[in-house]
Design a protein that fits this description.
Number of strands: 2
Radius of gyration: 20 Å
Number of helices: 16
Shape: globular
Mean pLDDT: 84
Low-confidence stretches: none
Length: 327
């Protein structure tokens, strides 16, 4: 059955893909269901628009995060960022050191080990994409690193909310934990969205994760210095617009018109933008899932996955212990 589906004409695959894409939107699937739908598509028929997937997911994720800023309050965001600053620095340092030692122990090549460590420590695929040109990583090293982080991200989105509920974590505790322990911003926001029906966990998780993402800059510059590299550092400019969105939504709500559409009812423009951001995130997770392939899983191999899992256990366990004792 699987082989038959994979051998469908490309036009038929495109039709199936588009129908599933529309179902994610129309049926308002939760983030985990959107991700699983994308993975099912990838494994059953393959992604018929794969050449456009990376660019689409990157742009949609960034736009969605900026839109989420319109539903947040600056004072709350600054408080979450301030409280999580030292925690962020400590966990990044521990992850990078542990990643180096584990990589050496498992005899993983230096570039792959460094990319996986940075992806785990900072913000998944974005960190890998920023560091790779600096260390002149080849396509194979990039694919293995991104594949490792992607697989663990998919698992995290599914297992973190149930673990958080089982342990009785408050929204604040869970938002902090998933921002520290989950790699990519998309899965962090997806897990926080799943955790509570309100925005409490989501606001904390997004703020701390994006603060963490800013560490791409000093880490990339430090790597370039020690590697004596002239590679260009990619800056996460969308975080600036996320901050602008928070400031605008906090101090200019009186200038925002009320809108009234039959489907969504009467809300402010900011509320519509925030809702669009949440919807965009769900679509992003579908596209991320659709980008998975059997080839990616096979290419990763055992040792990089083991390094990623060990780093994940270390940072996840340590951060959880601290969070439950402090927050």
């Amino acid at each position: 059955m699987k082989a038959t589906l994979l051998n469908l004409p490309n036009t038929a695959k495109q039709v199936v893909f588009i129908l599933c894409f529309l179902s994610v939107i129309v049926f308002n699937l939760p983030p985990w269901a959107a991700l699983l739908t994308g993975i099912f598509i990838a494994l059953a028929i393959g992604h018929p628009f794969l050449q456009h997937n990376k660019k689409a997911t990157t742009m949609l994720l960034q736009v969605s995060i900026v839109c989420l800023g319109f539903g947040m309050n600056l004072e709350h965001a600054m408080k979450a960022g301030k409280e999580g600053f030292l925690f962020t620095v400590a966990t990044i340092a521990i992850t990078l050191v542990a990643g180096y030692l584990i990589g050496k122990k498992l005899k993983i090549d230096d570039n792959t080990s460094l990319l996986i460590s940075n992806g785990t420590a900072i913000c998944g695929g974005s960190a890998i994409a920023a560091i790779a040109p600096i260390i002149k990583a080849n396509d194979s090293q990039m694919s293995v690193s991104l594949g490792t982080v992607f697989i663990l991200n998919s698992v995290a989105l599914l297992i973190f909310p149930p673990i958080g509920h089982y342990l009785g974590l408050t929204p604040e505790q869970f938002g902090t934990w998933c921002a520290i322990a989950i790699h990519d911003t998309s899965s962090v926001v997806g897990a926080a969205t799943n955790y509570t029906p309100d925005n409490q966990a989501l606001g904390i998780a997004t703020t701390i994760k994006l603060e963490r993402a800013l560490w791409i800059i000093p880490i990339a510059l430090g790597t370039a210095y020690f590697r004596k590299s002239t590679g260009k550092v990619k800056l996460p400019y969308f975080i600036f617009w996320f901050i602008v969105a928070i400031v605008v939504s906090t101090y200019l709500p009186q200038y925002v018109p009320q809108l009234n559409y039959p489907v969504w009812g009467e809300q402010t423009l900011f509320q519509y933008l925030y809702a669009a951001g949440r919807k965009g995130l769900v679509i992003t997770l579908f596209l991320i899932g659709a980008g998975l392939s059997v080839k990616t899983i096979q290419q990763v191999g055992f040792k990089p996955i083991l390094q990623g899992v060990l780093l994940w256990i270390i940072i996840g366990t340590l951060s959880l212990i601290v969070i439950r004792g402090v927050i």
